[in-house]
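step=encode ok
step=design start
structure_in=
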């Protein structure tokens, strides 16, 4: 197979085109990449039009000389491009298209493989954005699964930025990686997919063997705070303690020890005489001293029934 040198001044032009021809071999799974390579070659040779324009037969007895010349030029170009396309296919595909001109070949391949590639691209993207890492799943296994999705999209000639892939992977992580996500977004350093996998493996090893109660995440802190408050006792108010202490004072003003109140009269201890079995208001000594005027009635410490 020979190629014309468009400029006529570069003897290595044909060799370069031959290298381009052998760069991509169409095997049924890489149609977009292959057809892009074919278009680049034919565009360089000014023969790309044969992919999009059908070669229609003419009646040379009635056609004008110009129409006959155009037809023969188109036929020559189509034959050369067909050879290029056939040479860059697998042997099985060559058998299917050996009698096709480039236009018919291109249309059939578009229908059979390009539409299939679009459907596959849609299914891969749907799977990728809905895949979530399960609890207990290895982060390495999860990353390998997501990497396969990315590799397949790239093979389908989808322009899929690595930053977008990283965002989708971060979204797929469980809640125990919330702190990792926060740190990642605060960090301004550029990260590749391979580096992200290393960082996630380090984070995973840090999470193993640690319970949430020992190493709480920011999101779990309020829950842990509520749990801890259940075991904390409420402090007695200083006001209430003071009142009980004053109630335990003797008539001479001497403070007595703190007496624990009781709702059972049999267990109660009188704040006045410190005898058991009754409260102060029922104390015989207190009632007699009040009657004799030795003490003034004091209801501050008495307990209402």
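sequence_out=
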């Amino acid at each position: 197979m020979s190629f014309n040198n468009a400029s006529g001044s570069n003897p290595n032009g044909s060799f370069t085109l031959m290298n381009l021809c052998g760069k991509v071999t169409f095997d049924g799974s890489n149609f977009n990449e292959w057809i892009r390579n074919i278009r680049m070659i034919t565009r360089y040779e000014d023969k790309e039009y044969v992919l999009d324009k059908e070669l229609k037969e003419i009646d040379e007895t009635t056609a004008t000389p110009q129409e006959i010349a155009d037809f023969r030029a188109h036929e020559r170009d189509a034959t050369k491009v067909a050879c290029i396309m056939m040479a860059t296919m697998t042997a099985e595909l060559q058998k299917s298209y050996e009698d096709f001109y480039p236009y018919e070949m291109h249309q059939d391949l578009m229908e059979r493989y390009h539409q299939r590639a679009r459907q596959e691209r849609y299914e891969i993207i749907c799977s990728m954005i809905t895949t979530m890492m399960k609890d207990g799943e290895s982060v390495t296994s999860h990353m390998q699964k997501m990497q396969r999705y990315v590799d397949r999209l790239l093979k389908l000639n989808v322009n899929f930025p690595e930053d977008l892939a990283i965002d989708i992977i971060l979204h797929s992580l469980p809640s125990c990686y919330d702190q990792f996500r926060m740190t990642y977004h605060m960090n301004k350093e550029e990260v590749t997919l391979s580096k992200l996998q290393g960082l996630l493996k380090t984070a995973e090893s840090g999470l193993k063997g640690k319970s949430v109660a020992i190493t709480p995440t920011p999101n779990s802190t309020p829950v842990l705070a509520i749990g801890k408050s259940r075991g904390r006792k409420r402090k007695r108010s200083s006001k209430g303690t003071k009142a009980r202490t004053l109630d335990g004072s003797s008539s001479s003003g001497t403070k007595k020890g703190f007496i624990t109140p009781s709702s059972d009269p049999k267990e109660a201890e009188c704040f006045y005489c410190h005898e058991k079995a009754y409260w102060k208001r029922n104390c015989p000594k207190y009632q007699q001293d009040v009657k004799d005027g030795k003490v003034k009635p004091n209801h501050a410490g008495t307990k209402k029934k």
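step=design ok
step=annotate ok -> The longest helix spans residues 102-130.
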